Amino acid sequence: MNPVYEQMGETGLRELVAAFYRRVKEDDLLGPMYPESDWQGAEERLSDFLVYRFGGSQKYIEERGHPRLRMRHMPFRIGEAERDRWLQLMGEAMAERAIAEPAAGLLKDFFVQTADFMRNQEE
Ligand code: HEM
Fold first, then answer.
1. pLDDT value at 16 more than 90
2. What is the largest CA-CA distance in the chain?
3. Which end of the chain, N or C, is less surrounded by CB atoms within 10 Å?
4. Ordered alpha helix ranges (H), the chain
5. What pTM value is reported for the model?
6. CATH number for the domain formed by residue range(s) 3-117
7. Above pLDDT 90, what percent of the chain?
């Protein structure tokens, strides 16, 4: 089993995403990018994705198909500032949930790499 999933389980990943979205909602830069009327849906999509990505249920794929994350982020302006803010808020959420190693390091590496890959603005 993937060590992240083994350590955190589906519940732990969902709690992390809930802590992250509590921050995104209040954030001046990222908050306005998300659909005002569908915070619950956005939270569920990221949770389902992480559960799938780290070896749990395939619900994300069944409902959304191939992730194609870079393409799905094209409608949003993502430069260095947005990338850094996303990582900052996720870092705070990870600290709040007191995620231990090895999951903390594995998640952080994945988030840093993926967030940088989402950038779609020349700077
Ligand atoms: C770099 C900064 C990022 C910004 C500003 C950003 C912003 C957004 C926004 C505005 C949405 C649409 C919300 C919705 O689902 O309705 C979204 C969707 C999503 N994001 Fe990000 N995102 C970022 C990085 C990431 C990273 C690092 C990941 C993966 C760890 C990720 C995973 C996802 C997923 C899975 C969805 C839902 C895709 C779908 O099935 O439609 N995002 N993101």
1. yes
2. 40
3. C
4. 3-26, 39-53, 59-64, 69-72, 80-96, 103-117
5. 0.97
6. 1.10.490.10
7. 98
Instruction: Retrieve residue 7's tokens.
Output: 């350590």
**Whole-Å CA distances, 122 to 13, 71, 77, 80, 96:** 32, 16, 11, 9, 33
Tokens standing for 81?
């500032």
Distance between Cα 78 and ligand 1 center (Å): 10
Nearest CA to ligand 1 atom 34: 46
Asked if the peptide bond before residue 75 counts as cis, ω within 30 degrees of 0, the response is: no
